[in-house]
Design a protein that fits this description.
Number of strands: 12
Helix content: 10-25%
Strand order of the largest sheet: 3-1-12-6-9
Structural class: alpha+beta
CATH architecture of the largest domain: Sandwich
Oligomer: single chain
Shape: rod-shaped
CATH class of the largest domain: Mainly Beta
Radius of gyration: 28 Å
Number of domains: 2
């Protein structure tokens, strides 16, 4: 559409009473088409450079143990090691995609043993839809650590968070042990490639 407008405006100036030869108009149109192609390539290069320069990454951890979790509870990882681009909200535990693109998300959790039957299931949610699942069930002898990761395409503004599903018994999710920087349970994500 832009090319057509440029051509009409350019040709219109040449179709006055003192018309130039067709060869001159053809040369002018070819020159304008070359300029439009050059500008199109410049815009494409700038878009490519912007997507390369965009950095989005976060690593958040539980600061305290979560004891006797209830079903459908959003988990808030308020300790921050990294939050490049500030897309993760540590006050609410929600990541909001600043750009459309392909992202990687990971969750690792630790739970100490309990003597009675217990369990907790944790889901990674994308706008309220389950995208990944980790469970901590029946560990009565030793600490356990489970984790999962996934790669998802997000649209700008999509929201990601972790939330409990089914829970029973006396369950827990271990927070950090600040004395030795042991981040027992953590949530992370990063942009792989912007659209």
């Amino acid at each position: 559409m832009l090319l057509l407008w440029v051509l009409i405006v350019s040709v219109d100036g040449y179709l006055m009473p003192n018309q130039e030869p067709v060869e001159t108009l053809t040369e002018r149109v070819q020159m304008l088409m070359g300029q439009v192609l050059h500008l199109t390539n410049d815009v494409s290069d700038l878009k490519s450079q912007l997507s390369k320069d965009l950095s989005v990454a976060f690593f958040a951890y539980l600061t305290n143990d979560l004891i006797n979790l209830t079903a459908e509870t959003m988990l808030t990882f308020s300790g921050i090691r990294t939050n490049v681009g500030n897309a993760y909200d540590p006050a609410h535990g929600v990541f909001v995609a600043p750009v459309s693109g392909t992202y990687n998300f990971a969750f690792t959790g630790s739970a100490e043993p309990k003597s009675q039957d217990h369990g907790v299931h944790i889901f990674l949610k994308k706008n309220g839809i389950n995208e990944m699942y980790v469970f901590f069930d029946h560990n009565d002898k030793e600490w356990i650590q489970h984790g999962a990761s996934t790669i998802l395409h997000l649209e700008r503004g999509d929201r990601m968070w972790l939330q409990t599903g089914i829970v029973w018994g006396s369950n827990n999710l271990a927070g950090s042990r600040a004395s030795n920087n042991a981040y027992h349970s953590h949530f992370s994500g990063f942009l792989i490639q912007a659209d």
